[in-house]
Design goal:
By secondary structure, the chain is an alpha/beta fold. The chain has 14 helices and twelve strands. The strands form three sheets. The chain has a five-stranded parallel beta sheet, sandwiched between helices. The chain has a five-stranded parallel beta sheet with strand order 9-8-10-11-12, sandwiched between helices. A two-stranded antiparallel sheet has the order 1-2. The longest helix is centred in the middle third of the chain and has 21 residues. It is globular, with a radius of gyration of 20 Å. The model has no long low-confidence stretch (mean pLDDT about 95). It binds 6-O-phosphono-alpha-D-glucopyranose. 6-O-phosphono-alpha-D-glucopyranose (G6P) binds next to α4. 6-O-phosphono-alpha-D-glucopyranose binds next to α4. Its EC number is 2.6.1.16. It comes from Trema orientale. It catalyses: D-fructose 6-phosphate + L-glutamine = D-glucosamine 6-phosphate + L-glutamate.
Length: about 375
C-alpha cells in the first residue's frame, strides 16, 4: 500500500482527495448491480450468518468515539428506516461511565477506524459481558475490535495517516448504509428505495469527485475566516452528523472553536449567539427537512447572521433570497448518502484554515491518531 504523500503536501489533503478511490474500494465486490433475473442487492460476507439475529434484535446500539461516532450518527436514520429496528447512539466512554443497559437481545455495533481505541474497547468488553451480539466496523484488519467482536465489516478505506479522520469517515457511512440495506428486508414496498440507494452508491465516487472541485472555493472561504474565533455549523436529519463532524474537523486541526448544532434546537439557546460577526454554516441540501432549514435560514437572517449556506446545485436562489449570504453548492445524491458529499467541503475548509493559520495539519497539538489509553 502506498503511504507516501504523492503530489500532496499533507496526508490530510491526500486523504481528502482520494475519497473517490477509497469509496470505490469500500464498495468493491459488495454491491450487486442486478439484471434481468437478479435484484440489486448488497453482499457483506462478514455479516451474512448473523443477519437474522440482527433483524430480530430488540435494538441496535451504535458505539464509538469522535469521528466514528459521527459516522454512525449519519447512518442511523437509514438503518432505522430500512430495518425498522430502533437504533440508539452511545459515546463509548459515556456508556462505560453510566454502565448503561445493554441486553442479550441487543446488537451492539462498534465503529472504530483503528479498531484499537481504549474507550471503545472497554465498551466492547462491557457489551460482551452483557451478552449482546457485537459487530465491529473497523478499518484495521486484525485489530482488537475486529478480533473480539462476533462478526463485522471492514471498511477497506486504506491506511489513514492524518490524525483527523476524513476518508475513513465517508467509508464508514457507506459501510453502514450497506449494512442497513443488508439488514432491511427486501420487500416490495421498499424495493424502489433500496434500488435508488444502491444506484446512488454506485454513483457516489463520481459525485465526490465533483464536490472536490470546490477546493479553491473552500480555500477562498478559509481566507475570509482565518482570523475568526468561532464557527457554528447547523444541520438536522441526515446532516446533523455533518454539522458535528464539520465542526470537529475545524476544531481539531484548525484549532478554532467550532460547534455543530442540531438546527431543531436553535431556538433553545444557540440563537442567542447570533449577531453580524459570528460566521454560521447552515446545511440545507434537499431532503425531507429542506423547508425547515429554509425557515432556520430566514430566522438567522432576520437576526443579521453571517451565513454560509450549503445547498444542492441550482438552489442558491431558494436558500439565499437576495444573494445576502455565501453559498456552497454541492451535487445532490440520494438523501441518506448526502452526508458523504456534504462533509467534503467542510473537510477542505478545515484543511485550508489550518494551513493558512500555520498549524500542523497532520499532527494537531495534543491529539493522537489512536487513543489507546484512558
Ligand atoms: C481519536 C482520533 C479521532 C478519531 C477517534 C476515534 O480521537 O484523533 O480522529 O475519530 O480517536 O478513533 P477510532 O480509531 O476509534 O475511530
Amino acid at each position: 500500500e502506498q503511504i507516501n504523500k504523492g503530489k500532496y503536501e499533507h496526508y490530510m489533503q491526500k486523504e481528502i482527495h482520494e475519497q473517490p478511490e477509497s469509496l470505490t474500494t469500500t464498495m468493491r465486490g459488495r454491491l450487486i448491480r442486478g439484471g434481468s433475473c437478479k435484484a440489486k442487492s448488497v453482499l457483506l460476507g462478514g455479516l451474512k450468518d448473523h443477519l437474522k439475529t440482527i433483524r430480530r434484535s430488540r435494538r441496535v446500539v451504535f458505539i464509538g468515539c469522535g469521528t466514528s461516532y459521527n459516522a454512525a450518527l449519519a447512518a442511523r436514520p437509514i438503518l432505522e428506516e430500512l430495518s425498522g429496528v430502533p437504533v440508539t447512539m452511545e459515546i463509548a466512554s459515556d456508556l462505560v461511565d453510566r454502565q448503561g443497559p445493554i441486553y442479550r437481545e441487543d446488537t451492539a455495533v462498534f465503529v472504530s477506524q483503528s479498531g484499537e481505541t481504549a474507550d471503545t474497547l472497554q465498551a466492547l468488553e462491557y457489551a460482551l459481558e452483557n451478552g449482546a451480539l457485537c459487530v465491529g466496523i473497523t478499518n484495521t484488519v486484525g485489530s482488537i475490535i475486529a478480533r473480539n467482536t462476533h462478526c463485522g465489516v471492514h471498511i477497506n478505506a486504506g491506511c489513514e495517516i492524518g490524525v483527523a479522520s476524513t476518508k475513513a469517515y465517508t467509508s464508514q457511512i457507506v459501510v453502514m448504509a450497506m449494512v442497513a440495506l443488508a439488514i432491511g428486508g427486501d420487500t416490495i414496498s421498499n424495493q424502489a428505495r433500496r434500488e435508488a440507494i444502491i444506484d446512488g452508491l454506485f454513483d457516489l465516487p463520481n459525485k465526490v469527485r465533483e464536490v472536490l472541485k470546490l477546493d479553491q472555493e473552500m480555500r477562498d472561504l478559509a481566507k475570509l475566516l482565518i482570523a475568526e474565533q468561532s464557527l457554528l455549523v447547523f444541520g438536522r436529519g441526515y446532516n446533523y452528523a455533518t454539522a458535528l463532524e464539520g465542526a470537529l474537523k475545524v476544531k481539531e486541526v484548525a484549532l478554532m472553536h467550532s460547534e455543530g448544532i442540531l438546527a431543531g434546537e436553535m431556538k433553545h439557546g444557540p440563537l442567542a449567539l447570533v449577531d453580524e460577526n459570528l460566521p454560521i454554516v447552515v446545511i440545507a441540501t434537499r431532503d425531507g427537512c429542506f423547508s425547515k432549514q429554509q425557515s432556520v435560514i430566514q430566522q438567522l437572517h432576520a437576526r443579521k447572521g453571517r451565513l454560509i449556506v450549503m445547498c444542492s446545485k441550482g438552489d442558491a436562489a431558494s436558500v439565499c433570497p437576495g444573494g445576502s449570504c455565501r453559498v456552497i453548492e454541492v451535487p445532490q445524491v440520494e438523501d441518506c448518502l448526502q452526508p458523504v458529499v456534504n462533509i467534503v467541503p467542510l473537510q477542505l475548509l478545515a484543511y485550508h484554515l489550518t494551513v493558512l493559520r500555520g498549524f500542523n495539519v497532520d499532527q494537531p497539538r495534543n491529539l493522537a491518531k489512536s487513543v489507546t489509553t484512558q
